[in-house]
Amino acid sequence: MHGRVKVKSTAQQEEEKRKEREKKLKAFVSARDAVLRKRSAGEHDEEALQLTQQLLSSNPDFATLWNYRREVLLQLETSREKDEVQKLYESELHFIEACLKVNPKSYGCWHHRSWVNTRLPQPDWTRELGLCDRCLSLDERNFHCWDYRRVVVKESGVSVEQELQFTDRLIGSNFSNYSSWHYRSTLLPQLHPQPAPDSASNTSPSPTASPQIHSHRVCEEQLLKAEREEMISCVYVSRERERVSVAFSKPVHAQSEGLMLVLDGQPQQVEWRSTHPRLRHSPVWLCDLPPGSVSDISNEHNLTVHWTEKYTHRDCALYTGCAESWCRDSATDQELFRSELSVEKSSVLQAELQSCNQLLELEPQNKWCLLTIILLMRALDPLGHEKETLAHFQTLKEVDPMRSSYYSDLCSKFLIENTILKMEYAEVRVFSLSNKNLTTLCHLDQLLLVTHINLSSNQLLRLPPQFAMLQCLEVLEADDNAIESLEGLYHLPKLEEVSLRNNQICKLSDLESLASCTKLTRLDLRGNPVHKTANIDSELSQLLPLVTALSL
Amino acid sequence: CLSLLSESDDGNFILQGTQVKDVVIKPEAPNTLLLDKHADYIAAYGSKKDDYEYTLSEYLRMSGIYWGLTVMDLMGQLSRMNREEIIEFIKSCQHDCGGISASTGHDPHLLYTLSAVQILSLYDSINVIDVDKVVDYVKGLQQEDGSFAGDKWGEIDTRFSFCAVATLALLGKLDVINMDKAVGFVLSCMNFDGGFGCRPGSESHAGQIYCCTGFLSITGQLHQVNADLLGWWLCERQLPSGGLNGRPEKLPDVCYSWWVLASLKIIGRIHWIDKAKLRSFILACQDEETGGFADRPGDMVDPFHTLFGVAGLSLLGDEQIKPVNPVFCMPEDVLQRIGLQPDLLN
Hints:
Chain B: Catalyzes the transfer of a geranylgeranyl moiety from geranylgeranyl diphosphate to both cysteines of proteins with the C-terminal sequence -XXCC, -XCXC and -CCXX. The complex is a heterodimer of chains A (552) and B (346). Chain A has helices at residues 11-40, 46-58, 63-77, 82-102, 107-119, 125-138, 143-156, 160-173, 178-191, 211-224, 333-336, 343-362, 367-380, 386-399, 404-426, 536-543, and strands at residues 232-238, 243-252, 259-263, 266-268, 273-274, 282-288, 301-307, 312-318, 324-328, 430-432, 452-454, 475-477, 497-499, 522-524, 549-551. Chain A is of the alpha/beta class. In chain A, the strands form three sheets. Chain A has a six-stranded parallel sheet. In chain A, strands 5-6-2-1-9 form a five-stranded antiparallel sheet, with no helix packed on it. In chain A, strands 4-3-7-8 form a four-stranded antiparallel sheet, with no helix packed on it. In chain A, helix 16 links the parallel strand 14 and strand 15. In chain A, helix 1 runs antiparallel to helix 2 and helix 2 runs parallel beside helix 4. In chain B, the strands form three sheets. In chain B, strands 1-2 form a two-stranded antiparallel ribbon. Chain B is mainly α. In chain B, strand 5 (324-325) and strand 6 form a beta hairpin. Chain B is 42% helix and 4% strand. Classes of the chains: A alpha/beta (552), B mainly alpha (346). Chains A and B meet through helix 1, helix 3, helix 5, helix 7 and helix 9 of A and helix 2 and helix 10 of B.
């Protein structure tokens, strides 16, 4: 089915081919029918082995035949001595190897070989390892063989070090070595189960030898896999709404996490809900306090949220005279978006960065190099390298235009991260992301406390469900984008003012979720296709009766 | 292009050769969608029961029927297929254990059990087989570690985890298996690059990634995927020709227009692919003479690549084709009728 070239031939060649195939087909059908007849008759004998052998050599994917063969072998086992059984299965291994020579990628062949080794009184794992070595020397990317090798290694107790050496040899001799690098990624953690934060990056090849893998490894180690400690990042309490908002360090399903709310020493019966129905697993969850429990502003209260599944909690004190309160994790930028870096690790990364920059001078269009530099800079100093990072993203989009959407989204993510870091330092609740070529939004769980957000002059297409996590939002500016969907403007309790000039709101139904934002009074929709809808003014005043200042 | 640099004797770098495995699309390759020709090709396929390829592929016949019917339905041509004959055939393939085989006289397997259930869903005739027995069969194949064997002979593969939950979801019986363990097993197959392989420790492969993201969608666990990391690996499958390969350093193949594209759609990153270039590649894989799609331009066509070429075009938004569901690879209207709308990431 794969790799069969369509060859043009003469009428005579066609006729010869047709005759040849008719002959082959007849032979196949007759052998197949004979085998299936024998099986129906319950015959498990040598002849069955011969017939199936004939068919399987050129049709190794005919799975039922392997099944029949196993039934026959199991039957023969019962009437043989151990040494005869050994011979029986050894000759089976011989047969399988012949099949593998013809078709080294047949699931049926490889599985049958594994099965045979479970029946052999004395499996020879050294021979099996040798088979793997030979097979991989012919095709280093044969994943069937790699999977089989993993079984052989496990059964025979080959050491991790030995296997690492094997991958070293392959990697050195072959350009297409992704399978080896993958294998290494599984071996190294077995050697060093708890890598010290400052351990040298010996999981990665040098940037020059294999730039593609290097990018992957830097990515995975430094950034996208940044495992944050599982904790409650933020607790926010509103007296007016008598509501508690909780941000977790990762998406959770509140009802399964053993959450407990304690108010002034008394556990409270509360029901947790997500900020949006589409978010069944979410980093932000809400619950309502019993009516009247915190509404009196002259009272002080102490609130604790316990995350019993993870043995952690967060306290939040609500002081007299304060309408609201919060408590945040005091994460420094080191922990928010990247792994902690020791001095040693930093200098390793610094050296890699230097190496990549040298390579870039020789190959200014090398996309792996550009991407790795960006990732290394983020690991080392995201704010300090911001300008350079933007320039490199621009080059990346020119050099690798097929993936420009990916680069735009990744760049947007990094800009949002930098803005969050700056907001942390300034300790404000106003968040500006205007004019940053943003194509996507992320880390919205970090914006639980934000009251004013400016997303104007970007290339956003939607305010996704996650936007509903901005529980403190009062003012939204999102002019001059391409927004068609406002799903995330959903039950935002404090949202008063929304500006969406020059977007792509087309239908009345696109605005439905706004009806759930009961404090919304000012709405600017100028420059959206929706203004062409018939009777739009009256439709809108019906949909959003509380909006007093509407601009179309 | 990837470059290889190595150090020369004087310590400077030498540029070695660069090679990217890919195809070159000829200027005369097809560039319009030949839907009618494809419908004719599928309608006629298998009518000559003495055809060589057809007979030799009997071991996967149930899946072959599923490919043909699904692509015909996507093209609005399902009525041209022989519904009664197919339903009778499926009935004859259900074994006592409840499992369904690829064809008469062959042994039951999860792969063909899923294909059969998909076909019967298309035809809204699920009750012609013993549904309870199918459910028992699937349930019985779950192992201690949560994985699924393909059949009683014990081959383990995340493809079978997908087959199991997809089958049960179509039958409305997901609750019979140990869901936590099933999820745990699939997650244990996640690799450093965000992708998934056959078994724990196996290399990432687009086909397995499709199965695992489909599995996680059906089981409501997509938040466990690292969508940015996996999405990047997936969009890196796109080669200069516009076609997609299944893993690094491999040739493009039209069936990856499905495995890769559907995975991207499930994790909300389909816009990371250059859609126009992929579309030209898929169209170039058509055979203007015979109808149907081949794995790459100029090769022999078959129903498998025809389905995934058309399904890929549907995911790319071609309005001449019915919308296809990225998890089940079935028309969306069929799933709506059943009431199955698995989550996708945005």
